[in-house]
Structures are given as structure tokens and as C-alpha cells.
Design brief:
The complex is a heterodimer. Chain A is an alpha+beta fold. Chain A has 10 helices and 11 strands. Chain A has 2 domains: about 1-40, no CATH class; about 55-310, PPM-type phosphatase domain (Phosphatase 2c, domain 1), CATH 3.60.40. In chain A, strands 2, 3, 4, 5, 6 and 9 form a 6-stranded antiparallel beta sheet that branches. Classes of the chains: A alpha+beta, B alpha+beta.
């Protein structure tokens, strides 16, 4: 019965046969007659195979210590999966960049801890339930999962990497939805079909804030002695609030997630140009990192390029 | 970084409790280490000469290896940060005024210290102790800062309470005045400045978060928080005078309120109905409109057709129970449910019955029509799906508790809530696609916007749920439960609550954009129309607010409760009230 009902509905509305009924006389008092009439009109049709446009997600990534630092404090993580079942398509993607800071080995420990903590928490709270036999959504919303994940990472760093700190920027793609969480100044850009870049995150940087207030010019910001001071980062013991953005996954386009070793060295126009000329996400990523190194490579550089088509 | 110990001074025979603050020297370079110790000792010596009731007395200091210690008076009590955390709500203005005066007093003392002024540099709630006798004690002098090393690379300076010039290394009395302003702002708003972008106090006015704060207090805080130091109070002494003045004044405040009342009166007067129509009983439902005719149900069992331009009666159709259901209009026919348990279908033209179909419970849900079928909930716990031509049931599904939420159809999915607190999604064959659980009943209806279902529950949460999977993307906690159906415009979601507040929340950041407080429950669902939002409350008010700012455009009070929702057609708002009337108001 239900299949028949569905088929009827699909056929009737795809073919706009409703209009035919509107012309029918006042039959409405005898419902059974009409229903029979309906069934005659609505002969079952072959179910058309609906072309599913499952998004194709391709990822390139890279990390370089740069030309002036002796060790690397950046860390990143990527995971892309596609679950296709019963007329349904669920893409899943998790991309994280962390830029550690602090003397000795604390910076690299902090960025690694941040990624381990956040990724394992998100996978256990979202990915594992999603793939389980009896899919039970978590009691927590995506936003709450990110929030707790980042809080846990903060606690881990305070406990195990004293004096270390890190930025963290994480992107979760699930179905048609995208959640971005960030603390610090590692950025996410969305890139449209024409290679046009738009930052989706707002840096938690003091100089950026002074610039927004018109207190200093971009030129002054570039050479400001405190240009590296963040007002939010993990592992600093002060209360902080991660910025979490819920939005739609781009249908067609790309995302670039990167540390300031890339965006503060390579101009937005150059990034855009490299993206437009890139033959593959990996090649794009490699070229971006080369460009930062060619410009002096003063800091560690990490980049993840996510192409969605 | 370091710790504070509660210690006993064993040199005394009696039990003398002191506080010992430990500071760890983290510098690795021996020269820098030595400089830090020198600075520490110099400052400890300055502190030893300070004598003020709000400053704990310093007894001693010493350095052991990489650790330096300061021995001082032990203060029994909690600091304001802890008190605020425990309270979870803003402090009352009169309390904050008292503390503000005491803090100005001690700052005035420090700033006038001879031979050199002492700048505290770190006023914040955590450094203000309140003793058991409500005395203020300023603890943790800037001395501790000497021990913070500046590491190379990206280092953090989250201050929250510090003024911009402090980041340039300047320390004047105006630094402390700004930080005191920031502290009072935090106490009165319960918004932690360390979790907000720096220097954004002007974007977050005290009275926006806490309307009970007086305009004078707002002024004092704004002056203290001025971006440029010369625009702040010239001294802590002058700020103290301003606070004392505020504590004494009452007459000025009354004057201000009366101005506001006069404005309100003017607004009320200027807004009068275009027409009203009186039914025989309460009007609790929501009207619908088509081709110049307004259709609305009443508790007098009638569904009325009225001329939208003048409210003239056209016809009425009598059911056997009250009608709360908002009629659906399709193909010149009206579809609605009634507490008589029937789903009624009548002709728009003359109100003549086309068909009726019974359910086993009263109907408060409103129908939706899609793809030749009608979807409606009933107190018989079923979601009913009927063929609209014949009224024959196509399928129905038991949701386990009364269904007062009105279903919506998007694409080939049906979404509905139920009194057992579930939000469910079915396909057109009646197969369940997903269910999401709220903690209490869901009487509100789902609202769909950009692949997300927005819905409220009596558990005081506004949910954003992925329409495809049923995953909860975010939750926004309100103060009270809600049966109001949210509406959206661009990145904003609007909804009312039984906590008397109307909320506007950003859908991307999940942050409150603004709230508007009324004096009674808001059970009505909002409508967005041309840059304004409209909703009603149980006091019988219709409110129109600027959608961007939440500022009141106008309000109009009917003589009964309003539980239904307004509709707006061609700049005219139509709404029913428990005073038995239907109103047409200029939007």
C-alpha cells in the first residue's frame, strides 16, 4: 500500500495531473467513486532512478617547518569518508590545524595534544554513533561536542604541556552541514568557483582587534611588536570561549584551512591565483607552501585544501 | 603562576593564620632571573609601606631558589569572580555601587601614594575579595606579573579587563579606572570580558544585558571604559564622587522613567485598530487569508469568513467544538480541526461542508496540505494523513502522546513534534526517518530553514536539527519552556518563551543577538515582515520590534490573552484575542 501511495504521489505531482482534477465536477460527496477514478488515472509508472549527486571530496595537505625555525610546532589532521546506503549519501570530513607556541618542546606538545584530544572526542561522539548498527545520535549537539572537545584539549595542555599553548581550527563536514570551531589565528577560507577567497573565521589576535578599531593601520599591524599576541588560545589557563560556527556545507567549491605561516606571508591574491592554477588539491597545497617558503618562510606552515565538487 | 597557601606563623604562641603567596621564577637566563627577584623585592618593599583598610597587610617576603614568597594578612571570604560564578546572574546595582565606591577609595589612596603613585595594573573580579562582613579587600598586587616571562613567538596576553594603552606598556591611574569600569561591567552583566573580543564594552552596553541598571550607572561605567585615557574619569577620587552621587540620587531617575512612559503612551495612542470583529467566545487560534477574505476559528465553535478590508461578516460554519487550528487553504477549500475531534473541510466560497473525518481526540494542531494530502495531529496521539479529495485516511502513525504540534512538509518529508518530547521525521509512506528527543513536551511546530529544523520544547531549549539526519546541530537554552514556533530571517532565528522573553539568536554562532522582555508568557509564534518581527503575549499585547535591534516599534494591548499568532497581509496585521475579538492593525 505504501509503495503504491508513493508511486502515485510521485507520478501525479511530477506530471502535474492535479490540474485535471480541478476541472472535475462536484464529485466530492462520494469519496469512494473519486478514489476509484483516481486510481485509474494514476497508473503505476516505472520509478525513475533519481541521480544522486553525491559530493566528491578531495583533499590535499602539507606542512613545512619553514626557512627560519629549527623545529615544527604546527600539527594537522584530515579524515574524509563517504557512507552511501539505501538512497542516502552521508559525506563525513574532519580537518584540524593547530599552531603550537611556547618555549622548549611545549609548543609542539600542545598542538599535538589539541589534535589528539579533539579528533578522538569528535570521532567517538559523532562518527562512531553515526556508523553504529542502531544509530543513536549523541545526547550532545555538534556545537556542544566541539565545545567540550576544545575544553578537554585545553585541560590536557594545562596538565601535560606547562607553558605551552596552541591555536586550533577544526572543520567538520557531515551531510549537508558544516561546523567550524576555532581559537586563535589559524584560518578557514571558503573558496568559490572563481577561486575567490573569503575568510570564515575571525582571528583572535590583539593586533587584528586594534586594527578593526582603527587604532592602528594594516601597515603598523604588520610590524607591530605584539603582532603575535593572541587574546584566545588553548593552554593559557584563562577562561576562553571557542568560536563555533554552524553553516551549510558548500555545494561546489573549496575550503582552505591554514596556519598564519601561510596566510600572513602569502597575500590573498596570490593564494587565489595558485588555487585557480592548481591541477589537483595536493598540487595546490604544495604550491601554497612553496610560495610561503619562497617569501622567506619565517614560521611553520601548514595547510589543508578541501575540494568539494 | 604559583599558589597561595593558608599558613600558620609558628613564631607566635597563639594561632596566627597568614597567607603565603608563592611565585615561580620561570626565566632560564640567570641574568633575567636575578632581575625578576630584584623587581619582586623592590615591589614588596613598596607594599610594606602601604596602609589602607582595603589592602591586606604585608608581613614578610623571601626567595628560595626559583621561588619567591610573600607573607601577608589572611583574608577570609570569596573573591568576586567566585561569587559571580556561584550566583550565575548579574549583581544588583546597589551592591556594585557599594563595592565600586570602596575600590575607588583604595585606588585613590594608591594613586596618591608618595613618593611615587602605585598603579595596581590588575583590577578584576578575581582580585577583589569580599569578606564575611562585606568589606572589600584588594588582593594580588601587580607584583605577580613580574614573574610572567615573555616567550618568543605567539604568546598570549588575554587580559579582558585591561585598557588598550596597557598593551603599549603604559601604566597610569587611568589604567586602573578602565579596569574598574570593566570589572563593574562584568558584575552587572555577568558577561565575562575574557570570553569576548577585547575592547568591545561599547558594543555590549550594560543596560542591554541588564535593563534594571540605571542610566546614570551606565554613564559612569561608559566614562570609565572610554577608549582614550583622557576621556575617562580624571582620577579615582572623581569616579568615587560620581558613584556616591548616584547612590544618593533618586529624583533624577523618576524623571527619566516618566519620559519613557510618555513615549510609550504616545506609541499606544498612535496605534489603533483598522477594525475589530467580535465573536461569541474567545479567539485563540491563528487566522488565514486568501483573496481579500480572512478566515478564523473561535471557541464559539464557528469558523468565520470576514472581509479583510473592513471586518464585515461574510459567513460562518459551525463545528461542534472550539476551533484553534489555523485553517489551511487549498483549491478554494478550508481545512481545519476542532476540539469536536473532527477534521472539517468546507468551501471557501460559502462555508458549506465538503467532507468531515473523525479522529479519536480533540484537535489543536493545524493542518498542512502537500501533494494532495492533509497532515494533522490529534490528541488521539496520531499523526493523520488524509487524501484531501475524499478525506479518506492514507496512513496514520501513533506518536505515543497527544500531537498538538502542527506538522510541516518539506520536499517529501513530514516533520512533527509530540507531547512526549519527540520531534519526528517521516517520509510520504509513513516510514520513520529519524526522531530526536527533547526533555519535555514539544507543542511548538517545526520551522524549516536551509536544511535545518528549528523547534522549541517545554524543556526551555531552542533546537537546531539537521533536517536530513535528525542530528542536533546546536541547542540554545532559554530561561523557560516554550510552545512558540520559531521563525527565521537570514542568519537570525526569532522565538518567544514562557519566561516572558522574546529571543533573537544568530543561527551560525548560536549567540544571542538581542532579547526583549515582556511582563507575561509569550506562547504566540512570531512573524517576520519587512524588517520587523511581530508576536503577542498572554497580557494581550501585540508587539512589533525592529528585527535587527530588538527595539520596540509599537505595541498594542487587546483586552484578553493572545495565544494564537498574527498574520500580516499587505501591511495589515490580523490577530485574535481571548477578549472574543479579531483585530486588524496597521503593521
Amino acid at each position: 500500500m505504501s509503495n503504491r501511495f508513493l508511486t502515485n504521489l510521485k507520478q501525479l505531482f511530477q506530471k502535474k495531473q492535479v490540474e485535471t482534477w480541478e476541472d472535475l465536477p462536484q464529485y466530492l460527496d462520494d469519496s469512494s467513486e473519486v478514489t476509484k477514478e483516481l486510481d485509474k488515472i494514476a497508473t503505476p509508472v516505472e520509478t525513475e532512478s533519481v541521480g544522486y549527486s553525491s559530493p566528491l571530496i578531495e583533499v590535499g595537505y602539507g606542512l613545512s617547518v619553514g626557512k627560519q625555525r629549527t623545529h615544527n610546532e604546527d600539527a594537522f589532521f584530515t579524515l574524509t569518508t563517504m557512507f552511501s546506503y539505501n538512497e542516502s549519501e552521508t559525506p563525513f570530513g574532519l580537518y584540524v590545524v593547530a599552531d603550537g607556541m611556547g618555549g622548549h618542546k611545549n609548543g609542539e606538545i600542545a598542538s599535538e595534544l589539541a589534535i589528539r584530544t579533539i579528533v578522538s572526542y569528535i570521532l567517538s561522539e559523532i562518527y562512531v554513533p553515526l556508523m553504529s548498527l542502531n544509530p543513536q545520535p549523541s545526547d550532545l549537539s555538534f556545537r556542544e561536542v566541539f565545545h567540550s572537545g576544545i575544553e578537554k584539549a585545553n585541560e590536557e595542555i594545562l596538565k601535560n604541556s606547562y607553558g605551552g599553548g596552541t591555536t586550533v581550527t577544526a572543520v567538520l563536514i557531515l551531510g549537508e552541514h558544516m561546523t567550524i570551531a576555532h581559537v586563535g589565528d589559524s584560518r578557514v577560507y571558503s573558496i568559490d568557483k572563481n577561486g575567490f577567497l573569503e575568510p570564515m573565521t575571525r582571528d583572535h589576535s590583539l593586533v587584528k582587534r586594534l586594527q578593526e578599531l582603527g587604532q592602528i593601520t594594516p601597515e603598523e599591524a604588520a610590524v607591530h611588536p605584539q603582532r603575535n599576541v593572541l587574546y584566545r588560545a588553548l593552554g593559557q589557563g584563562e577562561p576562553f570561549e571557542p568560536e563555533i560556527i554552524s553553516t551549510s556545507r558548500p555545494d561546489k567549491g573549496a575550503l582552505l584551512i591554514c596556519s598564519d605561516g601561510l596566510w600572513s606571508i602569502v597575500g590573498q591574491e596570490t593564494i587565489s591565483e595558485i588555487i585557480n592554477n592548481g591541477s589537483s588539491p595536493q598540487e595546490t597545497c604544495d604550491t601554497l607552501i612553496d610560495a610561503a617558503n619562497d617569501a622567506g618562510g619565517p614560521d611553520n606552515i601548514s595547510a589543508i585544501y578541501v575540494d568539494i565538487s | 603562576m604559583g599558589a597561595v597557601y593558608r599558613a600558620q606563623d609558628l613564631r607566635f604562641k597563639v594561632e596566627k593564620i597568614v597567607a603565603v603567596k608563592e611565585m615561580i621564577n620561570q626565566a632560564t637566563d640567570p641574568d633575567i632571573q636575578a632581575t625578576i627577584v630584584e623587581t619582586f623585592e623592590r615591589e614588596a618593599n613598596i607594599l610594606a609601606t602601604v596602609s589602607h583598610p582595603s589592602i591586606p597587610t604585608i608581613y614578610d617576603y623571601f626567595t628560595l631558589g626559583t621561588r619567591s614568597y610573600l607573607v601577608m594578612e589572611f583574608v577570609e571570604g570569596d573573591n568576586l569572580e567566585i561569587k559571580l560564578q556561584q550566583r550565575r546572574a548579574p549583581f544588583q546595582e546597589d551592591e556594585v555601587v557599594g563595592w565600586g565606591i570602596a575600590l575607588c577609595d583604595v585606588l585613590d589612596y594608591l594613586h596618591n601614594h608618595e613618593p611615587e603613585p602605585i598603579i595596581f595594573r590588575d583590577i578584576k573580579p578575581a582580585n577583589v575579595m569580599i569578606t564575611s562582613r562585606n568589606q572589600v579587600r584588594l588582593v594580588d598586587f601587580g607584583i605577580a606579573k613580574t614573574f610572567q616571562t615573555d616567550a618568543k613567538g605567539t604568546m598570549i596576553g588575554t587580559e579582558g579587563y585591561s585598557p588598550p594603552e596597557q598593551y603599549r606598556g603604559e601604566a597610569s591611574p587611568q589604567v586602573d579606572i578602565y579596569a574598574l569600569g570593566a570589572t563593574m561591567h562584568h558584575l552587572l552583566t555577568n558577561q565575562d570580558p575574557r570570553t569576548e573580543p577585547p575592547f568591545t564594552f561599547d558594543e555590549r552596553p550594560v543596560r542591554g544585558a541588564n535593563p534594571s541598571v540605571t542610566a546614570s550607572m551606565d554613564n559612569i561605567i561608559n566614562t570609565a571604559l572610554a577608549y582614550n585615557p583622557p576621556e575617562r574619569f580624571e582620577s579615582a577620587g572623581i569616579m568615587r564622587k560620581a558613584l556616591i552621587g548616584l547612590a544618593q540620587q533618586t529624583g533624577l531617575l523618576e524623571e527619566e522613567i516618566s519620559v519613557a512612559q510618555a513615549t510609550q503612551y504616545f506609541q499606544d495612542q498612535s496605534h489603533s485598530p483598522i477594525w475589530t470583529f467580535t465573536c461569541e467566545d474567545e479567539v485563540r487560534g491563528t487566522p488565514n487569508y486568501q483573496d481579500g477574505v480572512l478566515y478564523i476559528g473561535s471557541y464559539d465553535h464557528n469558523l468565520y469568513a470576514l472581509e479583510a478590508t473592513n471586518g464585515k461578516f461574510i459567513w460562518k460554519y459551525a463545528a461542534n467544538g472550539g476551533i484553534v487550528s489555523k485553517p489551511a487553504i487549498h483549491d478554494n477549500k478550508l481545512y481545519f480541526g476542532s476540539t469536536d475531534q473532527y477534521i472539517h473541510t468546507i468551501s471557501c466560497r460559502n462555508g458549506k461542508k465538503v467532507w468531515v473525518q473523525s479522529t479519536d481526540g480533540a484537535i489543536y494542531s493545524s493542518p498542512v496540505i502537500a501533494e494532495g494530502h492533509l497532515f494533522i495531529g490529534s490528541d488521539d496521539e496520531y499523526l493523520h494523513v488524509l487524501n484531501i479529495l475524499a478525506g479518506r485516511e492514507a496512513w496514520s502513525v501513533n506518536l505515543g502522546s497527544p500531537v498538538r504540534s502542527s506538522p510541516i512538509v518539506v520536499g517529501d518529508m513530514v516533520y512533527v513534534g509530540s507531547d512526549n518530547g519527540e520531534i519526528q521525521c517521516y517520509d510520504f509512506s509513513g516510514n520513520i526517518k529519524w526522531r530526536a528527543a527533547a526533555k519535555r513536551s514539544v507543542t511548538a511546530s517545526p520551522h524549516f530553514h536551509e536544511n535545518i529544523i528549528y523547534i522549541t520544547s517545554m524543556d526551555a531549549v531552542l533546537y537546531a536539527i539537521d533536517a536530513k539526519s535528525g542530528w542536533v546541530i546546536w541547542r540554545y537554552r532559554m530561561e523557560g519552556g516554550s510552545i512558540s514556533t520559531p521563525t527565521t530571517h537570514e542568519n537570525h532565528v526569532y522565538v518567544g518563551s514562557t519566561d516572558n522573553t522574546f529571543y533573537c539568536v544568530n543561527t551560525k554562532s548560536t549567540k544571542k543577538v538581542w532579547t526583549f522582555d515582556t511582563d507575561n508568557q509569550i506562547n504566540s509564534s512570531p512573524v517576520y515582515y519587512k524588517g520587523a518581527v511581530y508576536f503577542c503575549n498572554v497580557d494581550g499585547f501585540v508587539f512589533s520590534l525592529h528585527a535587527a535591534s530588538g527595539r520596540l516599534r509599537w505595541k498594542y494591548q487587546t483586552e484578553g490573552q493572545i495565544t494564537g499568532s498574527p498574520i500580516i497581509i499587505d501591511d495589515v496585521l490580523y490577530v485574535g484575542s481571548s477578549d472574543k475579538k479579531v483585530y486588524a492593525l496597521p503593521a
